[in-house]
Each structure stands twice: as structure tokens, then as C-alpha cells.
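Need C-alpha cells for this chain, all 199 residues.
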Amino acid sequence: MNIKEQRLQELTKIAPTVSVRMDMEWLSSTSNTADFQIRLTSTGTTVVKLNALIIRGVHAPKITTGAISWKALNNNTDPLWLGWPKVTTNLPYISGQRKLNFSSATNIFTNETAPIIPTGDGVVVGTFRVSTTTSWNPNTDFKFVWEMTTGGVVGYVNFETESSTSLLPVGFMHYGPTTNTTIGKCLTVTASSAQPLNK
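Here are the C-alpha cells for all 199 residues:
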């Protein structure tokens, strides 16, 4: 059995016990900014650790006449999270598609230093601020919707059991099958039902 076959066998075996939820939670807005946070929660029976995550989705049209940008506030003070996501520049935004498109760095954590994604209330991994160069249009809602065919969370499983693949990160996806690098359909993504702007 080669390492890819071994990896597929291991992930297929553990897949039914791995379950993660990623929530986009709306916080507040001003006339030209809006803040939201990302919460991760482990809802399965296997302990999982974070390596990286992808925030990818679109917002409503006609919410402003200005140019939109967004950034991480880097206000996670939990020392285990090592200042994640450690990005001080504006995050990728595809204006023609109204798409937030951020993938965090995969070299911040190793399988040894990666923080555990907790159960229960989970953990707020980061807060983000969206801005416009003018102001939000009256009576608008951001209406962020996750992209459902790409993205996800990258992390570690089986790190308590000796395995030749334990050092390798695995993708936790809300779509697709389980492969030798990903566990499919183990991630649930949600977003706040109300995301009011300029309120």
C-alpha cells in the first residue's frame, strides 16, 4: 500500500467522526464599515486542529456606490492562536463577482502547534471589517452567502495516534467526496440571517 492509499484508508475510516461548523456572525455596521466574525466549532467526536481556513462567498449587489475592501482586525488575543490570521494588508476581493476570497496562510501552524477547534461554543478565530469608500446605501443588507463548491477548513486529525500521515494537513469540506487529502461533507457553513448595513 502506498502512502496515498494509506491516507485514503485512514481518512475514510475516521470521516464519520469528523464534523466542523464554520459560522459567519454579523456584529455591527456604521455608515461606511461593517464587522463580522468567524467562529469554528467541532461538532464530531474526533478532535481536530486548525491549520488554515478559506472565507469565500459573495455579498448582495447594489449596497454602495463606492469601492469595497476588507481586512482582518487581528484581534484574537488567545496565545494559542499566534495572532491568526497575521494579515495587515487588505484581503482579496473580486469586485466583478462581489466576492470575498481569503485563504489564510498554511505555514502559521504545524500539527504540533495548531490549536484545537473546541466543541460547545467553539472559538471566534477572527474578526473582519468590510469598508466602502463612500457609504452603504440606505436599507441594505450585506447578505453574505458562502460559496458551496470551493473553500473550507484545513486542519489535522489522528494527531494522537502514530501514523505516517499524521503530520499532513487535511481539508474539511462542505462538498465532495473523501479523498487522500480531504474529508468531504464534514463541514457545515452558516451565515447570520440578518446583516444590516448603516445601522
